[in-house]
Amino acid sequence: MSVIKYESFVREPLVDGDKTYKQVTEDIVYTIEAKPTRLWYIGFWIAVVLLLFGVYSLYKEVVYGTGQWNLGKTIGWGWDITNFVWWVGIGHAGTLISAILLLFRQGWRTGVNRAAEAMTIFAVMCAGQFPIWHMGRVWMAFFVMPYPNTRGPLWPNFNSPLLWDVFAISTYFTVSLLFWYSGLLPDFATVRDRAKTKLRKLLYGVASFGWSGSTKHWQRFESLSLVLAGLSTPLVLSVHTIVSFDFATSVVPGWHTTIFPPYFVAGAVFSGFAMVQTLMLIVRKVMNLQDYITLGHIEAMNKVIVLTGSIVGCAYLTELFIAWYGANPYEFDIFYKYRIAGAYGWSYWLMMTCNVISPQLFWFKKLRRNIGFTFFMSIIVNVGMWFERFVIIVSSLYRDYLPSSWSLYYRPTIFEIGFYLGTFGLFFVCFFLFAKYFPTIAIAEVKSILKTSGETYKTKMADLEQLSLEEFDKKMNHHH
Amino acid sequence: MDIRKFVVGSFDDEAVLFPAVENVRKTGYKLHDVYTPFPVHGLDKAMGLRDTSLHTAGFIYGLTGLTTALSFMSWVLTKDWIQNYGGKPHFSLPAWIPIMFELTVLFSAVGMVLTFCYLCQIAPFVKKHHFSPRATDDRFVMVIECTSTTNAQEVENFLAGVGAQDINVQVAEAGWWLGRYDMDRKLFETQTQTATA
Q: Does ipTM top 0.95?
């Protein structure tokens, strides 16, 4: 009976199916080199149509004003800012998977991190549309940039969270893009070196920057990845904290609460992972990548969902408690009169069901490892999180301090819905292009964990397991 | 133009690669590089490469971002155009922390990536000689440079001895040039060069 066991009792292999390095390349690059399927064309053109409808909606808003959006007295922010926070939240999961899981040395991130980071970049692109276009006089958007100008020079208000948002979102987009692209360089080189057509050789050659795989370059690459991960982690936390400050630093009842930063960040991770699940379940099926995005990956992400969902649930209960304990009559009314009951009570209870009650089902292992249920839940969570932002924004605004200003009902116009659908169009156009022309799984990273976490090497470790402890120790220390 | 002669050998197992690298260093052949499809843990140490200081550069860029943000905002809000925002003090450091943090991260990230590209000599339209197309697929490609005193045949035998496969001699450009991967470039006449081996 051997003392040493190679296979962990807790962790299953991260790469199934007895793969060699060559097979990893073949599996992942296959979809890049194959012709697009009919399903791809259908999805892509639907996304284009949505995007065009979004452009038309924006045209109406820019030319005829934000009144096209049914925004008005007291409800000055509606679907626009709800969607903004929703998209930014979704983006955070990608960075968390790439950066935070890298710092925690979690090998399972390699199966999903490339697509998750792509999701982040596209989600932040969509999110950024809302603060820009909701300005009304969007042709003066450049006013937010601190550059020497002839207006004084008039500088933007550095003390305002709305400006912090500008810096935060731009920085988040730039850093995520750099992190994602630098990770792509070796994988583009892989595609380049296999390319058969002239166009592919040209394009992937340019995209790979001449990457050769030199050890010195890998050394720098690993240092760069680690530092970018170390920077991205507090960046994620800070970006959504700053977004939460848009609300928390105001005096609006239901907004002015110190729980918002951690609550928003946990909520962002929650909704982001749900979106990653939605995308990954489709990608792994359609692109035949079940060996790389295993049931273990799905389960790990569901565990994060139940964790962050519980934090969000905790935050909701804390808000309710403080609204009572704090004895602020306005805050009390918002929670106990206008959110739980009231004209928007339905949205509050929808939010509670989707976000608090449903993720708790993931405590059950059978449900965590069930693909259909996971997909269904991921949609539920995303809907729930959209409603969370809607509840926060609209139910606090429609009944604020002055009763004479209370508005009764806020209903989105076709152009608000069109703008939102347009961002789905933008997201999916980008994602479909990414899925077809970019390696959707980090090829080099999967190869680097193949030996320690793949299925093949379990058998090769059998003779190692037969050694005694002393022999094993000597062998390992001699090696490196 | 920096044309040199190289002897190239491929490995498919790290357990064979590492002793081979140690052997190369012991025998004193000039190890040009080892090209791998993914970062192999410990290979840079085995090759005797010095640790990179890229993270130090990143730290310095971050500090630059921090000081830029702080000095700019304090100049604007305490000197250039002082404003009264809700009765808050003019030097309101807590309010500036988000932007200071963001600029730190931004400068550090952008600076590091640009430095990385500069050090590795990579950029769009940069082209290099790739010793084996499988270096980015599934082989660890070891390249030994043949100086004027090295006998190429001796190196080939040595590589065969340490377990390399697909051993071949290549005469190629050691540096980078601007080019397109869909067009080949003839830099030199192969016939005359290999004859002097």
A: no
